[in-house]
Amino acid sequence: MLTIENLHASVNGKKILKGVDLDVKAGEVHAIMGPNGSGKSTLSSVIAGNEVYEMTKGNILLNGEDINELDAEDRAHKGIFLSFQYPVEIPGVSVTNFIKTAINESRKAQGLDDMSASEMLKKIRQKAALLDIDTKFLSRSLNEGFSGGEKKRNEIFQMAMLEPKLSILDETDSGLDIDALKIVANGVNKLKNDQNAVVIITHYQRLLNYIAPDFVHVLHDGKIVKSGTKDLANELEAKGYDWIKQESN
Ligand SMILES: Nc1ncnc2c1ncn2[C@@H]1O[C@H](COP(=O)(O)OP(=O)(O)O)[C@@H](O)[C@H]1O
Ligand SMILES: [Mg+2]
Questions:
Q1: Structural domains in the chain?
Q2: Which ligand approaches the C-alpha of residue 45 most closely?
Q3: Do residues 193 and 26 lie in contact, with contact meaning Cβ atoms separated by under 8 Å?
Q4: Would you give the DSSP letter of residue 22?
Q5: Residue 85's pLDDT is what?
Q6: What is the pTM of this model?
Q7: Which residue from 42, 202, 221 has its CB within 8 A of the most atoms of ligand 1, so it is best to mutate?
Q8: What is the pLDDT of residues 102-112, one digit of tens each?
Q9: Predicted pLDDT of residue 206
C-alpha cells in the first residue's frame, strides 16, 4: 500500500526527516510514536503532500506508484486521508454539506458524475449508524464550537464517507480526553478492513489501549530508530523515550 524509502525532508531549510523507511501493507495498522519534535507531524504532512515541507531525497510509493510529484489534492483523490490537527471552522457549512462536496470533488477528479442525492443520503445514514453519530450532529456548522470529541467524531465521519485507502491520523496530545480517544479508536476499529491501511501518530501509548496496532515504530530525530509490535508501545510507556534515545546514540 504505502512504501517510503530513504525519505529526507526539510522545512524552511531545516532538515527534519533524515532517512525514513516504512512499509505499510493493506489490512495493517501502524503506530508511529516518538518524542515531541522528532518529526512525526512532518512525516504525515510529507506523505499527504503538504507543500510547506520539501522532500529532498527518497521515494513515496502508493500501491507501487511513485506519488512524489503529486500535489496534496491529487494524493487525496488517490486515497490518502490526513486528519487535521487544527481543523478550520466553516460557519454556515454543515458537516454533511462539507462531506458531500468532498465526495463529489473526488468523483469529478476520477471522471465520475456526482453521487445521486438518494445514494448520498443512504451512505450518510449507513456510516452515521455504524459510528453511532447522531443525525443532529451532521447538520451542525463545520467545527464551529466543536468540543475535542466532536472534532474527532467529524474526522472519523469524513474518513468513513471518503473510504480512503490510507488514513493517517496525527493525534495531538493536548485536548484529547478519553472520550475523544475512544471515538478515534472505535472509528479505526470499525473502518479497518483488508483493503485499507491506517497510520496512527501519537505521542502517548494511551490511544493504543483501544487500538491494537500490528506494528509500532519509534521516530527519533527524523529517523525510525526502532520497530516492533504492540509490546514496544508498552515498553515505551514503562521506560519512556530516553531509553530509545540512549540506545540509538
Ligand atoms: N512549518 C515549520 N516551520 C519551521 N519548523 C518546523 C515547521 N514544522 C515543523 N518544524 C520543526 O520540525 C521539527 C519536527 O516537528 P514535528 O514534525 O511537528 O514533530 P512532532 O510532530 O514529532 O512533534 C521541530 O523542531 C519543529 O519545530
Ligand atoms: Mg506532531
A1: 2-248 (3.40.50.300)
A2: 1
A3: no
A4: E
A5: 66
A6: 0.93
A7: 42
A8: 999 999 998 99
A9: 83
